[in-house]
Design goal:
The chain is of the alpha+beta class. It has three domains: 255 residues, Alpha-Beta Complex (Spore Coat Polysaccharide Biosynthesis Protein SpsA, Chain A), CATH 3.90.550; 49 residues, no CATH class; 105 residues, Jelly Rolls (Sandwich), CATH 2.60.120. 24% of the residues lie in helices and 33% in strands. It is built from eleven helices and 29 strands. Strands 1, 4, 5, 6, 8, 9, 10, 11, 12, 13 and 14 form an eleven-stranded mixed β-sheet that branches. A six-stranded antiparallel β-sheet has the order 19-20-21-28-23-26. A hairpin with a 3-residue loop joins strand 12 and strand 13. The two termini are 38 Å apart.
Length: 443
């Protein structure tokens, strides 16, 4: 059985904890583990293989976090752009034997009752082996208006319902045969593809074209043009709401999609005034209750409980203002290591850069800034133009605007350096990659 893990996300609902380059599934919220790591671990008891569908940026986060939990055999499909869940799952199924049973899970959900979860997985697997498409219906605990509902009759999916108002949600919960739509599925790869071809032939055909032309080496990399040609749609709209083969497995498993700070506040300790405080600092609150306070190195969010769904409105406004706050934290994970912004001003920026052993940055240049590198630990190999030199601890080098350069770590230890950028623009998008070990080169 293969666990197909969907790793999409733009990091909007838990901003400023999550960002575009660090969506919520990779933020370590529970006992120093991320929701992504918890997802992988809880499915190991029934799934012997993992296939992760991700974009290029999140691939490196996934790789690092799986390494932390000592899992090294996962396979990956990399999408250049997201086209929703139906194409993502189709591409995954095309990479598998048609008879393989697939468990599709989002990477950013929390499940607390693991024994109950394992029981419903076994039930779902039995249905899947009988050629049904299984969806997991979460037993509702209250009249939630933020989820879609599945109406079932003796495990047969009768209808899918959009997010209701409060009155209709209460009717659903009281009826006893309506379930929250979890976004988790189980089926044979071939059966899903047959139903997709039957009910959404355009998605099937374009996904097949994209998979056929994809680069397949260690990873399966989908080409940008072929991916953009696939119609965008969810698995619910494309297949589940139309197929006669859908079965519902009720799941009372301690589930949460952790889709807002209000949802997160139900899972983490609150103070005596019912405030959720997330901060690396010591925080004292006077006269404040029933609120959420999230403090990161570059942003502070204060929101009344019950209002946290509106955080995405803040993110949308910041994006219009071209703020990097929605995309990056001060500490940014890259495939070669990390960098941390120590100070930023209009015309200059100071960073701490850590390059992992055996890694190197892309061969690149900048159009609007000069850079000064000071090595504070280790031994860096630096290429500037056609000249390659070794820069040791307490030594420095200078890279002029438009000059081609590269930083490499050819040693067995991390190298740490301080980078000072000076110029008319110091945004992270002022980079032209000419060569790149991680296939991010421009063009």
């Amino acid at each position: 059985m293969t666990n197909v893990i969907l790793c999409g996300g733009m990091g909007t609902r838990l901003w400023p904890l999550s960002r575009e380059l660090m969506p919520k599934q990779f933020v370590k919220l529970f006992e120093e583990k991320s929701l992504f790591q918890l997802t992988v671990e809880r499915n190991l008891s029934i799934c012997d293989k993992q296939l992760i569908v991700s974009n290029t940026e999140q691939y490196f986060l996934a790789l690092d976090q799986l390494d932390e939990i000592k899992l090294h055999h996962a396979k990956y499909i990399l999408e250049p752009i997201g086209r929703n869940t139906a194409p993502a799952i189709a591409l995954a199924c095309m990479a598998l034997d048609p008879e393989e049973v697939v468990l599709v899970t989002p990477s950013d959900h929390l499940i607390k009752d693991i024994q109950a979860y394992e029981d419903v997985l076994e039930e779902a697997k039995r249905y899947a082996l009988d050629n049904y498409l299984v969806t997991f219906g979460i037993t509702p605990t209250f009249a939630e208006t933020g989820f879609g509902y599945i109406e079932a009759e003796r495990n047969i999916a009768k209808a899918f319902h959009e997010k209701p108002d409060v009155q209709l949600a209460e009717t659903y919960v009281n009826a006893g045969n309506y379930y929250w739509n979890s976004g988790m599925f189980c089926f044979k790869a071939g059966i899903f593809l047959e139903e997709l071809q039957k009910y959404s032939p355009d998605i099937f055909a374009k996904s097949f074209d994209a998979f056929k032309t994809a680069k397949k080496d260690v990873l399966i990399r989908i080409a940008h043009q072929e991916m953009s040609d696939i119609p965008e749609d969810s698995i619910d709209y494309a297949v589940m709401e139309k197929s006669a083969k859908v079965r519902v497995v009720p799941a009372d498993i301690g589930w949460s999609d952790v889709g807002s700070f209000d949802a997160l506040a139900q899972e983490l300790p609150n103070d005596t005034s019912n405030n959720l405080v997330i901060s690396d600092k010591h925080v004292e609150l006077l006269g404040i209750s029933d609120s959420i306070i999230v403090d990161t190195s570059d942003a502070l969010l204060v929101v009344k409980k019950g209002e946290s769904q509106k955080v995405k409105e803040i993110v949308q406004r910041l994006k219009k203002e071209s703020r990097e706050l929605t995309k990056l934290h001060h500490l940014v994970h890259r495939p070669w290591g990390t960098y941390e912004v120590l100070y930023a001003h209009q015309n200059y920026k100071i960073k701490r850069i850590v390059v992992s052993p055996g890694k190197r940055l892309s061969l690149q240049k900048h159009l609007h800034r000069n850079e000064h590198w000071i090595v504070v630990r280790g031994e860096a190999t630096v290429q500037v133009g056609d000249t390659i030199s070794i820069v040791k601890e307490n030594e420095s080098t200078y890279i002029k605007q438009n000059e081609i350069h590269r930083l490499s770590n050819n040693t067995n230890d991390d190298i740490v350096l301080i980078e000072a950028q000076v110029g008319s623009y110091t945004g992270e998008d002022d980079i032209i990659r000419l060569e790149d070990d991680y296939r991010r080169a421009d063009g």
